[in-house]
């Protein structure tokens, strides 16, 4: 397990050093946000490099570990050397610490209690289901096994129809990579990876709302406490990782909207993050389309075409890998779009009110019940509060965030409406997971209500 | 210094209490959740590994009745999970065929014509092989 942790830390530290070397700073950043971003980008890029290794003959094994360790050590060393030469002071990145008030201590203690209970539930879930939930062993960890055990024959995974062979591979390659470092298929590896994604989401939410504000800690508690969230952490699937990418991408968009200067860094990082979301799950492509549309609209409105250039520069490399993977390596349509309905049927569904009424009737109960027992109604309330927050004058930077979330919801709705699969089954098996993907970003938007975004305050 | 104003302390307190309730409820749910049998099911299929080729297609006999039930589908998926990187196909034809307990029709299953049983495990699963 120690060796797996080394594999986890290498790209994390190398990416952090890369941020330091390039002085890539976002306007509302903090040490916590930088650590979260370094973890997220590091895991994502090391997953992409793993795919590139295995598709070019370096199959998972000792040779792979050596090549991977050399790659990330080299990236880290170059970044460290470059950063040291520039005389960058990490301490300058955060505002000076201020004394904590009684309120600060109380909210942090309350958050700690709730987080401790959530971690306990996670440990119990792991002891009950060490291999994760159905999709973990039917799809994500199974593909990781093909990579780890299959050698040159890892492409045999494309012949397992229920594993959605054409799905993006971030989670599976990340797990296989860490198994390679560990030298064994430890169930703890995907579990710890999922727990780190969950922790990064909570830390990202707190940092996004400004760690010095009590409401940031309340937001962290609201994100982590619902049973659906904890259960998804234990599930070891890809819905939680993509939730992190959605959250961070939209926070970059928020920061870019909040500032008239220093927009390049959040747009560049936002581009990288959104492309990694597309490498995590197909829903990431919906996020990519929605956010690119918003960035282009904002650039057109402000007559700042270079905004799009930064976004495209960040997104292009990984998006090209996703397109290459989906068209040449694994050209298999997702199960929910495996056969397209005839045009007449598609038009019939779109223009027949009964279809919309059916989906509405299906969604309603799930929407209200989402979150688990005693959490009835939390999702509609948080969504409504997020919309209200974005409509206020202070919530201007949030409008892009809420619009992107709305476009993603529209994309999910379109799949429910147009998929040839049984609509009742599709909605009932996907609703909770799809909402988890948007939950942290909705919570940040909702908890911003009645308050200027922290980035605005800092900008003064 | 951060100060909370108006009804904010009450609202924040109520929301923290609600979060506490949700988290405790999930902890109780997790404690009451049954043990997932995947590790045991995996171990049952792992016993076939010494007798199987390292890769390629392995047949899997679907139960003669209720083949589409959740339990039956799960067992097939468990076989695939355990025996990766082999491909466990739900039909007869490949040289090796896994017959899980109770999946062959009692009194002779015509789907097994041409196959010979080479191994039966204590858990009731069998391995059949078609010799040229």
Describe this entry's structure for a reader:
The complex is a heterodimer of chains A (460) and B (132). Chain A has 460 residues and is mainly alpha-helical. Chain A has 19 helices and no strands. Chain B is an alpha/beta fold. Helices cover 36% and strands 15% of the residues of chain B. Chain B has helices spanning 8-32, 38-46, 70-83, and strands at 57-60, 87-89, 96-99, 116-120, 126-129. Classes of the chains: A mainly alpha (460), B alpha/beta (132). The interface between A and B is large, with 57 and 37 residues.
What would a concise description of this structure say?
Chain A is mostly helical and 460 residues long. Helix content of chain A is 74%, strand content 0%.
Q: Please state the average pLDDT score of chain A.
A: 90
> What is the string of helix and strand elements of chain A?
HHHHHHHHHHHHHHHHHHH
Oligomerization state: heterodimer
Number of strands of chain B: 5
DSSP strand count of chain A = 0
* Helix content range of chain A: over 70%
Shape of chain B: elongated
Describe the largest sheet of chain B: 5 strands, mixed
Strand content of chain B: 15-25%
Largest sheet of chain A: none
Interface with most residues:
A-B, 57 and 37 residues
Radius of gyration of chain B: 25 Å
The number of helical segments of chain B is: 3
Low-confidence stretches of chain B: none
Instruction: Return residue spans of chain A where pLDDT drops below 50 for at least 5 consecutive residues.
Output: 455-460
């Amino acid at each position: 397990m120690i060796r797996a942790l080394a594999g986890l830390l290498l790209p994390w530290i190398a990416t952090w050093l890369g941020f330091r070397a390039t002085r890539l700073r976002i306007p509302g950043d903090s040490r916590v946000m930088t650590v979260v971003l370094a973890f997220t980008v590091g895991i994502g890029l090391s997953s992409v490099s793993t795919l590139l290794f295995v598709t070019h003959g370096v199959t998972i094994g000792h040779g792979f570990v050596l090549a991977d360790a050399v790659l990330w050590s080299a990236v880290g060393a170059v970044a460290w050397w470059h950063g040291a030469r520039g005389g960058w002071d990490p301490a300058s990145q955060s505002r000076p610490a201020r004394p904590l008030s009684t309120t600060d201590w109380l909210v942090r203690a309350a958050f700690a209690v709730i987080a401790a209970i959530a971690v306990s539930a996670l440990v119990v879930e792991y002891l009950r289901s060490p291999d994760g939930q159905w999709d973990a062993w039917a799809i994500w960890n199974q593909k990781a096994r093909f990579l780890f055990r299959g050698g040159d024959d890892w492409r045999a995974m494309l012949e397992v129809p229920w594993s959605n062979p054409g799905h993006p591979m971030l989670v599976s390659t990340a797990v296989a990579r860490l198994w390679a470092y560990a030298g064994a298929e430890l169930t703890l590896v995907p579990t710890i990876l999922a727990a780190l994604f969950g922790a990064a989401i909570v830390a990202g939410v707190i940092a996004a709302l400004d760690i010095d504000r009590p409401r940031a800690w309340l937001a962290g508690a609201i994100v982590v406490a619902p049973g659906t969230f904890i259960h998804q952490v234990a599930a070891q699937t890809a819905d939680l990782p993509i939730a992190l990418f959605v959250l961070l991408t939209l926070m970059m968009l928020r920061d870019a909207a909040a500032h008239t200067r220093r927009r390049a860094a959040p747009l560049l990082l936002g581009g990288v993050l959104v492309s990694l979301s597309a490498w995590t799950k197909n829903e990431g492509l919906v996020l990519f389309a929605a956010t690119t549309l918003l960035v282009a609209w904002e650039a057109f409105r402000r007559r700042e075409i270079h905004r799009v250039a930064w976004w495209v520069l960040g997104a292009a490399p990984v998006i090209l890998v996703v397109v290459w993977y989906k068209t040449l390596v694994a050209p298999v349509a997702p199960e929910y779009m495996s056969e397209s309905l005839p045009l007449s049927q598609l038009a019939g569904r779109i223009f027949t009110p009964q279809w919309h009424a059916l989906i509405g009737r299906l969604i309603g109960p799930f929407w209200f019940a989402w979150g688990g027992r005693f959490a009835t109604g939390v999702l509609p309330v948080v969504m409504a509060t997020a919309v209200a927050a974005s409509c206020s004058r202070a919530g201007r930077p949030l409008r892009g965030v809420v619009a992107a979330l709305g476009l993603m919801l529209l994309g999910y709705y379109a799949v429910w409406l147009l998929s040839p699969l049984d609509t009742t089954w599709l909605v009932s098996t996907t609703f909770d997971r799809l909402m988890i993907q948007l939950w942290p970003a909705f919570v940040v938007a909702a908890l911003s209500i009645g308050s200027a975004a922290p980035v605005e305050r800092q900008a003064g | 210094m951060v100060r909370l104003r108006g009804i904010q302390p009450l609202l924040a307190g109520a929301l923290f209490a609600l979060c506490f309730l949700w988290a405790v409820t999930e902890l109780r749910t997790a404690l009451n959740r049954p043990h997932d049998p995947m590790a045991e099911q995996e171990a049952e299929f792992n016993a076939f590994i010494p007798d199987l080729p390292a890769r390629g297609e392995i047949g899997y006999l679907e139960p003669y009745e209720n083949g589409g039930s959740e339990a039956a589908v799960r067992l097939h998926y468990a076989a695939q999970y355990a025996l990766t990187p082999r491909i466990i196909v739900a039909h007869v034809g490949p040289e090796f065929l896994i017959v899980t307990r109770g999946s062959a029709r009692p009194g002779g299953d015509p789907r097994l014509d041409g196959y010979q049983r080479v191994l039966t495990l204590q858990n009731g699963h069998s391995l059949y092989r078609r010799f040229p």
